[in-house]
Amino acid sequence: MNTTDEQIRQRSSLLGTQVISQSTARRLGVVTEVWVDMNQRQIMGLTVSERTLPGTTINLGESYFMALEDISVLGPDAILVDNDRVLQDYLVSERYTNLIGCEVVTESGEVLGKVRDFQFDPETGDLLYLILAAIAIPQIPAQLISTYLLDVNEVIAVGRERIVVTEGMEERMEQLTKGILETLGLGKPPWEQEYEEDYLPPPPVSTNALGSGRRENTYPTKPRPTYQRETGELRRAVETWEEEDNWQEERIPVQPPPKRKRLESEPPPPQPQPDPDYYETTQQQIQSAWAREVKQPQPEELEEL
């Protein structure tokens, strides 16, 4: 079934829309999120919050999940449901995704941008298009950045944070808006910016260029220590020298300073004299040790005998 442009709805147009019960005419809350099941390429439901920060979709109260099939009328200004029982209290962030911020790459790994928004059919819930940009912040106006439209049929694989599309998709995407930087000639699409960052031009080489003025180190450097993965030890590599290098020839002999001769008029240097007290003390210690070793009787012991 072909979907016309009037039937297509966009995620950003649903955020902030009020949900009203037809049976009680009571306001149930405001839409703060749209959830998608990428395995089925289907819009599964909305998050409805009781209170939000004025002018934003930041939740300040209780939040509930409302399935897309429970919506009676999906109007531009309000969403009508049958009664209050359509609001369900369970967590859906682990089952579904909002796609905002997911990176889109080709099969070769070329980055095309990030998901900023998406479009779907409100009657069937089929996901139709992804809106890509270099910056995936919905609060930034689309007139300031370049946005591109990607057909969901080109999606090959889907992960939690990455979407893979067919090769050469950058040439088949439709550009929705042109950013200010691209209009001024200062910005380019994400795939061209990534290519320029990876490409580094070679440095210019000139035969007439002067040297840097620094002396090059021509001496061999010591090998660095190596880490043995099997034993977990840090071993120092053995220093090896080539046979052609003759270090003995390059070594400069160092001569000791000449010894100064003593003049005849100079007195001879003083000779060290032994300390008599030290000598006597040492002799007494030797005799006492010898007496203890031989066990000779001391004078006091002889008097007792």
Please indicate the percent range of residues in DSSP E strands (runs of 2 or more): 25-35%
Tell me the name of the CATH class of the domain at 103-195: Mainly Beta
Structural class: alpha+beta
Unreliable runs, pLDDT <50, ≥5 residues? Answer: 195-201
Task: Tell me what the CATH architecture of the domain at 103-195 is.
Answer: Roll
Helix content: 10-25%
Task: Report the sheet with the most strands, covering strand number, pairing sense and barrel closure.
Answer: 8 strands, mixed
Shape: elongated
CATH topology of the domain at 103-195: SH3 type barrels
Oligomer status? single chain
Mean pLDDT across all amino acids: 77
The total count of strands amounts to 16
**Radius of gyration based on Cα positions:** 45 Å
Euclidean distance between termini CA atoms: 137 Å
Describe the structure.
The structure is a single chain. The chain is of the alpha+beta class and about 300 residues long. Among the domains are: about 10-85, SH3 type barrels; about 105-195, PRC-barrel domain (SH3 type barrels), CATH 2.30.30. It is built from six helices and 16 strands. The strands form three sheets. Strands 1, 8, 9, 10, 11, 12, 13 and 14 form an eight-stranded mixed β-sheet that branches. A six-stranded mixed β-sheet has the order 5-4-3-2-7-6, with no helix packed on it. Strands 15-16 form a two-stranded antiparallel ribbon. Strand 3 and strand 4 form a beta hairpin. The longest helix is centred in the last third of the chain and has 19 residues, at about 275-295. The radius of gyration is 45 Å and the shape is elongated. The relative contact order is 0.09. Residues about 195-200 have low confidence and may be disordered.
